[in-house]
Amino acid sequence: MGLQRKTFLIISFLLLACVQAWATHIRAGEITAVRISQTSLKFRFTIVVYSDTGSPIQVADGGIINFGQGRTIGSLQGGNRQTIEDASVNFEERSIGNETAMTIIEIEHTFDGPGVYVVSYTEQNRNDGILNINGGSSKQVPFHIETVLRIDPGLDVNATPQLTIPPIDRGCIGARFTHNPGAYDPDGDSLAYRMVNLLQDRGVEVSGYVPLNDPSITTLREDGGSPAKFEIDPITGTFTWDAPMVAGEYNAAFIVEEWRFSEVTGKYELLGYVTRDMQILIEDCDNERPELEIPADTCIEAGAILEAMIRGTDPDNNKVLVEAFGGVFDLNPNAAQFTPEPSFRQQPAEHTFSWQTDISHVRRRPYEIQFKVSDQPTDPDAPSLTEFATWYVTVVAPAPTGLNSAIANARSIQLTWDDYIGRNYNPVMKIYRRVDSFDFDPENCNLGIPDGSGYELIDQVPINQTNYVDTNDVRPGVNYCYRIVAEFPLPKGGTSYASIETCALIPLDVPAITNISVEETDITNGEMFVKWTSPLEIDQVLFPPPFRYELIRYQGFTGTAGRTLVTSTTDTTYTDTGLNTQEIPYHYQVRFYDSGDNLIDSSSVASSVWLSALGLVQAVELKWEANVPWTNKVQEYPYHYIMRNRTDAAATDENNFVLIDSVKVTNSGFIYFDDGSFNNTPLFDDREYCYIVTTQGSYGNDLIPSPLINDSQKLCIQPNDNVAPEEPEIEIPDGAEEIDGLIVLDSPNCGNLENLGCAFSNFSNTLTWTADDIDGDIASYNIYFSPSGAEGTFTLVGNSRDASFTHTGLSSYKGCYRVSSVDRSNNESSLSAPICFDNCPNYELPNTFTPNGDGLNDTFRAFDRPNGKCPRFVKNIEFKVFNRWGGQEIYSYSTQSAVEPNYFIDWDGRDNSGKELPEGTYYYQAIVTFDVFNPKKETMEFKNWVKIVR
To answer: Which residue has the higher pLDDT, 587 or 226?
Structure first.
């Protein structure tokens, strides 16, 4: 660093020639807060101000505290230190070294209600001679810090981040300067850090402020590179200035944000932040930074003792001071210990970190323990340099114990377990299940259920419940394995280690399908090999063999579409032919009959393996899936195999398929990326490559041999394919008409309305289409919807492999659709011409009602029975009653101005003043507006008489 340092010294001398020695007062500050009442919004704010011990000016003499709610304490005019002292619950000052005093002002405030509040402290004046404020003319610039506090009942009780490391360090010319605030959050919220501009008042930035990486301040880093660096790590909070060029005073500011996950919004919400405005003193010195040795980040089970050695060294052989900071030292009970007491010691200085953890320490986020090492140069006037390091420690809840399983009956499994040690902290118990055993070690940082293990969450129960009956699609012949995990509530959160595994094997008293393997891929002549077991554990006294089997085939992964009885046989294998295995998957079920030809039961359904692909630049991404009762993630047989053609150097061999790779699906899942790495030959973008994936599965049942081998269909795709497929054409039924440029037809479902009650509001539309897919490249279709049909208003509402789609959950039938084709390279066609479904409006009114309070026909009400007479798709009603035609209006009602519109009207026979009308005949007019495309059906006018009978 010698030559670089000389360069810095020359520049420093030139720039400092006209700068006076700096006079100091406030060096840094921040405001933190803790809520101190569970019944009111009372907070205790701690304002910390760091000042120069050599200054005669007193902190808070000329300061003002603003709570952002109309309450202020103090004045910028000065002479009010006593006012602030009197208002505080604690006011203390003490020296903390490096010619710095720390003033702590604790003051309480109760907010009126929820909201976002900006709490600030402002004091006149900043130091004079701050080089990055107005070129050093900073005396008249106020010092201002603020904290933002969000009080939200939906986010529970909250305290701001707490800062534990004082900003009192100094730096050397040409040497990287670092600082870490040692922040932690008492509630376990997530923290994030970012640099901000200095403030001089609420919402007012300091004019003339220059960031520390500005070329006018510094241009070079410690290593001689450029540009200079001025940043804060958003995760660790370590602030770095690499590197100062000129001796003097500088100021910088950053904020520590706190974020909490909201179960209401389903996302992380910003709760507020704390601002630290800090001064940096740079001096001309020749010193090397000390170094820290800390352990690797770790996890520990609650209840265990964590011990570690922390070591500080110095390349100049100076004495070093090693300190530790963080929320773990403020815990009650069982705060962490750091021994021996920090002091300057001969290097290497070794300290022991010790922490007796307990269940109250469990939380989702790791604890951040900041370590700081400072050296002590032999020159007493030389500044001490520092280094920071952060150690992350996650306290994990113990695993639940005593998990056992037993078969309750043929289709359910009973689970039991012990009372949980952490039940007083109100976690929930999550229950996970998979097919076949999966071994892993729940220790260290392997908490909860690891990715790739194949376990699926099937339910969760209150922590005081210690049993569970699993009836969730329990299938014969399957070995079901379970683990349970305790999940702690937010805001702290936390996940326990997983319990030991327990398994229960369901008797194989029905056939079990073992193979659905594609033998031939073709649009019309595809073949599928299907195999199943006999019901090996059935009671043959009750159900005597021989058994007859019926093989049922369906299209897709689930559902009953394309149901076909394929064969009736006494064999347990069958090759199904004449299929479209190129474009669709199939699933099968086996029904079986006893010797008396009585239907006994059916197997679980099982589908073929469906392979999809995405063409990339000189590469292909493969994904595959299957809906089967066994597992295709087997620890004993973890690999699925990738077969491909064109493996020769010229990529011309289309007919021979070669094993190019295997995928360990327990780690990587059902996905593979082919870039030609297996033979170091990149894929050609102008060739079509074909693939087959072979899967391995298991029931985890010794009666059913493993692995179960099944092949996907052959799938061909061209890398870097950017040619879009053909645009689909939506089928238009008879009766459609053109309205304002849109093809509109009454919903085909209108005939079903007579079966639906008046309050029904869960409508659906079904559309079908055709597409020219000569080369079989279309993988799926995107469906777009618009309530109005206007250009630019269509949004994606679904994707379908089939040429049909049912849009559910609609408030009416009215709406327009467009469809696009998506090929295997994810190219999308243009959108089809829109087709719109219209509502089928209806409204009918009576002629008589009897408002006599007997609960029968008491109001003039639109018909609500039978269902075919219900008001349908009404947008607005204007209703008026007259004493005679052309006579005086005596009552009116409009849904347009109603807070809760009543489309039934429900007039009770009173006039506009609320007076009961006598018996007799009256006349009404009702103008009903409907929500429709067709203008001919948009408005209906009723003019008729109505008789009041009392």
So the answer is: 587
In percent, the amount of the chain with pLDDT more than 70 equals 97
pLDDT at 786 over 90: yes
Q: Of 606, 621, 651, which one is at a domain's C-terminal end?
A: 606
Percent of the residues in the chain that have a pLDDT greater than 90, as a whole number: 77
Q: Is the entire prediction scored with pTM above 0.85?
A: no
> pLDDT tens for residues 500-516?
999 999 999 999 999 99
Q: How confident is the model at residue 8 (pLDDT cuts 50, 70, 90)?
A: very low
Number of H helices, E strands in the chain: 3, 66
DSSP designation for 448: B
For residues 890 and 880, give the distance between their C-alpha atoms in angstroms, rounded to a whole number.
8
CA dist 520 and 377 (Å) reads: 80
Last residue of a domain, one of 253, 283, 313: 283
Q: Which CATH number does the domain housing residue 349 bear?
A: 2.60.40.10
Residue 896: Cβ-neighbour burial (10 angstroms; 0-12, 13-18, 19+): exposed
Write down the H helix ranges in 440-498: none
Rounded alpha-carbon distances, angstroms, from residue 499 to 404, 442, 517 = 10, 8, 36
Residue type, 612: S
Q: Is 70 exceeded by the pLDDT of residue 6?
A: no
SS3 582: coil
Residues 794 and 891 occupy one common structural domain? no
CA atoms of 248 and 543, how far apart (whole Å): 95
121, 182: one domain: yes
Q: Residue 652: count other Cβ atoms within 10 Å of its Cβ.
A: 10
Task: Write the CA distances from 656 to 85, 521, 622, 647, 678, integer angstroms.
Answer: 88, 15, 19, 8, 16
Distance, CA of 56 to CA of 63 (rounded, Å): 16
What domain range includes position 324? 291-396
- State the Cα–Cα distance between residues 286 and 316, nearest whole angstrom: 10
> Do 525 and 585 reside in the same domain of the chain?
yes
How many CB atoms are located within 10 Å of the residue 329 CB? 17
Under DSSP, is residue 665 helix (H, G, I), strand (E, B) or coil?
helix
pLDDT at 20: 35
At 82, list the tokens: 């006593």
The number of domains in the chain is 7
